[in-house]
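Researcher: Structure prediction, please.
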Amino acid sequence: MGLFDKIRGEFIDIIEWIDDSRHTLVWRFPRYQNEIKNGAKLIVRPGQVAIFVSEGKLADVFEAGTYELTTANLPILTTLKGWKYGFNSPFKAEVYFFSLRPVLDLKWGTPNPIMLRDAEFGPIRIRAFGSYVLKAADPKALLTEIVGTNAAVSTEEVTELIRSIIVEALTDLLGTSQIAALDMASNYRKLADELKKQVQERIDDEYGLELQQLMIVNISLPDEVEKALDLRTKMNVIGDMGRFQQYQMGESMVAAANSPAGGGAAEGMGLGIGLAMANRMTPLGNPGQVMPSVPPPPPVAVWHVANQGQTLGPYSMQQMVEAIGRAELQASSMVWTAGMTDWLPAGKVAAFAGYFQAPPPPPKT
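Model: Predicted structure follows.
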């Protein structure tokens, strides 16, 4: 590096910020050990503001335009530096550029569910998320409260703060609005406007930020509550549960009949479902009249036989009669069936007494 380049590198003659990012709010001009020379050019582009800081004290503010830095346009810095008669030598000062363009499509959401008391469901937990638009409104307040000595401040560094304020304000708003959970979707715009107002009141004077727009995209209930609501909606849509059960039984009967592995079980299932449907069906001529149920068949008697201290059976009535015919069951054999108080000889049981009587003699010829 030649002597001319070294001397030129020690002094700054152009101060500007070419912002290639849409998410940087504040950027400090990298002065390092270089000094700003008398008559240096300051370029502030549209949507920017530049602030000079000297030894931790705010000095002159420049809006969009091109300036030649002299005592005429640096009155505050001139006073701080004690330049009574102007300055002819380079000086040191920090220059901060602020972007006044709104930062679009920033996201917010509830990291944890918000507990509420709903008039219809009782205590419930809800989640919410949405988006917002943020911009720097008061560069001096932003520089004092957030920037400090940072070389740059991006929106990512302030979004956590803004999200916390939004969630805090949303919790207060939902607690006082008394809007039913099922009516929140129809009040998104109303809630968003009021939420934006409350958040703006908390950040404008304190942090120098402006919340230009805030939107609520969704307020959701827990999964188990949504499933219960879905079931409740289905029941309301179905209406007549009796007719719906008839439809389900009909569908089950068709599915069982078409099952390739159903066999006799499928036929029996179809028969049983068909009988159940028949008992529930109403006459077409009088839909309000329910047909009487078909009485069930009488229970089949099941018999037991005592033989040498052991109980044999159960046997059906047909099996007992066949045993009498083969002389395997005698009139003195002890038998029992449900409804009897004790064991009795088969010959004294009315159901079998007729089978033990002697046959009539043959007619005489």
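Model: The chain has a mean pLDDT of 78.
Researcher: Thanks, that helps.
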